[in-house]
Each structure stands twice: as structure tokens, then as C-alpha cells.
Design goal:
Blueprint: H1 2-15, E1 25-29, H2 34-47, E2 51-54, E3 62-66, H3 71-80, E4 85-89, H4 92-111, H5 128-141, E5 146-153, E6 159-165, E7 177-182, H6 191-204, H7 209-213, E8 216-220, H8 225-233, H9 287-299, E9 303-311, E10 315-318, H10 329-344, E11 355-358, H11 359-362, H12 370-376, E12 381-387, H13 403-431
Parallel strand pairs: 7-8, 7-9, 9-12, 10-11
Antiparallel strand pairs: 1-3, 1-4, 2-3, 5-6, 6-8, 10-12
Helix pairs in contact: 1-4, 6-13, 10-13
The structure holds 2-acetamido-2-deoxy-beta-D-glucopyranose (3 copies) and zinc ion (ZN).
One 2-acetamido-2-deoxy-beta-D-glucopyranose binds at residues 341, 344-345, 353.
Protein name: Peptidase M14 domain-containing protein
Signal peptide: 1-16
Active site: 386 (proton donor/acceptor)
Length: 432
């Protein structure tokens, strides 16, 4: 009874924050050629300032979030340009309420089970504080394998911590390092499942001894803590960090961290603070991107693979975002296919297969991405993984997480990470 009341109170409080999305719709739209694509981007991004959730291509539609008061202009402009579109979600607020209810119920179920302290059960989305506590707990309980490292401090002053997982305390240069990070884009919550599952399978329940004995791991679960917390407490679709002081009276805040790394910085991103892909005042202007940079720089001779986990779309993407190909593009593609195939082999049948390709050519040009910087400093296998948008019985999809999918997302992505890690284990040995 008490628990029912708690759920009720929890839900009535949180529903208020979803009001900003009352009446907002998600539309799918099609483009037939490059010209239409340019037109639609100009209209949606530059003219209407809309948030494009997924990018259209020759055989796939794009997705865009349209607030209530922009819907009329949106429809008018797209009709005029002859671009086909249809609403897939009429009122996103209803879906936000559903997600909140599902996740709140899942989290209450777990927290009432006191035996679940050691390993986090993968059927909920964890708050930043819970992840931090978990990492401290792991470092304390597995001192021979796990070291908690503070990589820096976020704009709002939170510690950005990551785990070093190693049976040789990171001292053995004959081992390659695999570096995985998630939640650089704060709203892409499903990515958390991938890093947590990796930690679980390396530390808590290791059934593949080669992966822990022969490889050192760096795992950074929350690359953008301020944005992540904001996406829970205030705006579910918050993508950037929470940098202020960039715009008059802070009417717009935040830097797109995945446009802030130093590769072709500022060339394929926005210099407007209010845009979702605002690249920030300069390369590595943000403390959050500096954390990844420092890790990559410190271990660049040993990091053989870097994986930045995002969502959504089921893609394995490799550098460079500008469409330019690095010298090892064929190898990048080959290992990308290994990763994608390993996931496809165990994915849910309702989800589509992964697509592998250069991000600039396959999706759209971008600059300042984390995977670009990693490749630039010499990490051979550098990828951005876009996890699937899952639509189960609850019907929520896109960035929204159905608890039904969390364990599966962790499991299937780990199959991909394993396939990549085993390949780079050999490639590192050969390179040396
Ligand atoms: C692009 O597609 C539109 C709509 O079918 C068409 O009107 C236009 O001529 C096409 N442009 C090019 C360059 O193919
Ligand atoms: C440990 O991992 C294996 C293989 O992934 C799995 O089958 C098993 O259920 C896990 N054990 C626990 C206690 O979670
Ligand atoms: C999806 O991937 C699986 C495994 O790689 C393959 O067997 C299947 O044919 C693929 N399906 C499609 C529609 O491409
Ligand atoms: Zn992302």
C-alpha cells in the first residue's frame, strides 16, 4: 500500500516537468536526393530551430521533434518543398509519462530487494549518484582488478570518474587497452546499459577470462554528468552539457560535447549557442571533453579500440565525421562489420540489423566528434555506436527507454564489444 502511494506521489511530481513537451509531435520525413536533404536541413534546423532526432538517407526516413507552436509552420514549409512527412507520435508528453512510470516501477522493484547491492540489475536506468556509488563499491570489493579514477570535474563541479579494469594494475605494456564511454549525449540513456553490462561481465561475473587477463579496460559510464542529471530532473531530451555564460541572460545554454573535440573543429557543426550541435567556444573548451582527451592522450600507445556509445539508429560509425577516410578505413570497416554482425546474431528480431560505415558518408557530415579525435591521435579502431531504438509493447521509442530492453541492450552490445576486443587483441600484438 505504502509503495503504491509512493509511486503515485513520485509520478505526480515528475509529470510536471514533462509539460514543456505537451502537444509536441515526432514526425518522420523522407528526402529523395541531396538537394532535398539540404533544403530540409535548412528549413528544420536553421529556420525553425528544430531538434532532428535521426537523419534521413536514401532508404530511411528522418525523425524530428516539433513543438506544438511550430507544427503549423513545419507542415507549411515541408508541403511547399514537396517533402513527405507523417506524425509517428502525436503527443510526446504521453510517451514521456509512460517511460517515467515504467522506469519508476522498475526502480522500486529493485530497491526493495536488498540483495541486489553487489551487482546492479539491468532492468532500470540508474541515476548518476547510484552509478558513482556502484563504482566506489566495485573498487573497494575488487581491489585486485578495479581502480576508480577521477578524470576531472564537470562544468557544474561534479567529479567525472571512470574505472580502470586490469589484472596487472595497468602496468603491462604487452596488453592493449579498450576504452568505452557512454552518456556523452545525456538523453541517450540506453547507452548506460552497455557500459554497466561490460563492467558486470568483466568484474562481477567474468565468464571470458581472456578479456580480463589479456586486455586492460577503461570504462567511463557518465561522460556528461551535468547533462545527464538535467535530463532526469528537468528536460528528458537534453543532449548537451550545462555550460552557461554563452548567451544573453543564459537564454540558451550548453555545448554539444560530441562537436567539441579537436578534429576539424567548427567546420561541420553550429556556432549558434541555441542549436543542438553547438560546438562551443573552442576545441576542448569543455571540461567534460577534456576528460576523454586526457585519457586518450595518456594511453594512446596502448588504446587499440575506443567505443563511444550513443543512441539511436543501430549504426557502427567510424571516422572521420567530415567524410574523409583515415588510412585504415578498410580495417575500420572490417572490424565494424565484425561488431555489427556479432550484435545482429543475438539482437531482437523486431530490431533492424546494424549498418556499418563512415559517419559523414552514411549519415551526415559532422566535426569535432570523440571518435574522430581518437583516430587522429592514433587509436586504430575508433567507433561511435548508435544503439537501437526499441519499440516494445509499451510503444515508446527513440531516446525513450523501455525497461524491457535494458538487459538485452547491454547483452547484445557486449557481444559486439567482445568481437571487437578479441580482434584488436591480435592486431595490437601484431603491431608490436
Ligand atoms: C530531387 O527530388 C525532387 C522531388 O522528387 C525533384 O523535384 C528534384 O528535381 C530532384 N532534384 C535532383 C537534383 O535530382
Ligand atoms: C553470468 O554470465 C553468464 C554468461 O553471460 C550468464 O549465463 C549467467 O547467468 C551470469 N550469472 C549471474 C549470476 O548473473
Ligand atoms: C541481418 O544480419 C544477420 C546476421 O548477420 C543476417 O543473417 C541477416 O540476413 C540480416 N538481415 C537482413 C535483412 O539483412
Ligand atoms: Zn549521441
Amino acid at each position: 500500500m505504502f509503495r503504491v502511494l509512493t509511486v503515485f506521489l513520485l509520478i505526480s511530481v515528475v509529470y510536471a516537468k514533462h509539460e514543456i513537451y505537451e502537444g509536441a509531435s515526432v514526425y518522420e520525413f523522407e528526402v529523395e536526393n541531396e538537394t532535398q536533404s539540404k533544403i530540409v536541413y535548412y528549413m528544420l534546423q536553421d529556420q525553425l530551430g528544430l531538434d532532428i532526432w535521426s537523419h534521413p538517407g536514401p532508404s530511411r526516413s528522418g525523425m524530428v521533434l516539433v513543438p506544438k507552436n511550430s507544427k503549423e509552420e513545419f507542415a507549411y514549409k515541408l508541403k511547399l518543398a514537396g517533402i513527405k512527412f507523417r506524425a509517428t507520435v502525436d503527443n510526446i508528453k504521453e510517451q514521456l509519462d509512460i517511460e517515467e512510470r515504467l522506469l519508476a516501477t522498475a526502480s522500486l522493484r529493485i530497491s526493495s530487494d536488498s540483495s541486489s547491492k553487489a551487482a546492479l540489475t539491468l532492468d532500470r536506468v540508474y541515476r548518476w549518484e547510484e552509478i558513482e556509488e556502484y563504482m566506489v563499491h566495485l573498487a573497494r570489493n575488487y581491489p585486485d582488478k578495479v581502480t576508480l579514477v577521477n578524470g576531472g570535474t564537470s562544468f557544474e563541479g561534479r567529479p567525472i570518474n571512470y574505472l580502470r579494469i586490469s589484472t596487472t594494475n595497468f602496468q603491462d605494456p604487452s596488453k592493449p587497452v579498450v576504452f568505452v564511454q557512454s552518456l556523452l549525449h545525456s538523453r541517450e540513456w540506453i547507452g548506460q546499459a552497455a557500459t554497466l553490462y561490460a563492467i558486470e561481465k568483466l568484474v562481477v561475473n567474468n565468464t571470458d577470462s581472456d578479456l580480463i587477463n589479456d586486455i586492460d579496460w577503461i570504462i567511463l559510464p557518465t561522460a556528461n554528468p551535468d547533462g545527464y542529471i538535467f535530463s532526469h530532473n528537468s528536460d528528458r531530451f537534453w543532449r548537451k552539457n550545462r555550460k552557461t555564460g554563452l548567451f544573453i541572460a543564459d537564454l540558451c545554454v550548453g555545448v554539444d560535447l560530441n562537436r567539441n573535440y579537436d578534429y576539424a573543429w567548427g567546420t561541420e557543426s553550429s556556432d549558434a549557442v541555441c542549436e543542438e550541435n553547438f560546438h562551443g567556444p573552442g576545441p576542448f573548451s569543455e571540461p567534460e571533453t577534456a576528460v576523454t582527451k586526457n585519457i586518450l592522450d595518456e594511453h594512446k600507445d596502448r588504446i587499440e579500440m575506443f567505443l563511444d556509445i550513443h543512441s539511436f539508429g543501430s549504426y557502427v560509425l567510424y571516422p572521420y565525421g567530415t567524410g574523409e577516410l583515415p588510412p585504415n578505413a578498410l580495417d575500420l570497416n572490417l572490424v565494424g562489420v565484425l561488431i555489427g554482425d556479432a550484435i545482429d546474431a543475438v539482437k531482437l528480431s523486431a530490431n533492424k540489423n546494424y549498418t556499418v560505415g563512415n559517419s559523414g558518408l552514411l549519415l551526415y557530415p559532422s566535426s569535432g566528434g570523440s571518435d574522430d579525435y581518437a583516430r587522429k591521435v592514433g587509436i586504430p579502431y575508433s567507433y561511435c555506436l548508435e544503439l537501437p531504438a526499441f519499440r516494445g509493447s509499451s510503444s515508446i521509442t527513440g531516446f525513450l527507454v523501455d525497461p524491457e530492453f535494458i538487459a538485452q541492450a547491454g547483452y547484445e552490445t557486449w557481444e559486439g564489444i567482445k568481437a571487437g576486443a578479441r580482434y584488436v587483441l591480435d592486431s595490437y600484438k601484431m603491431r608490436r
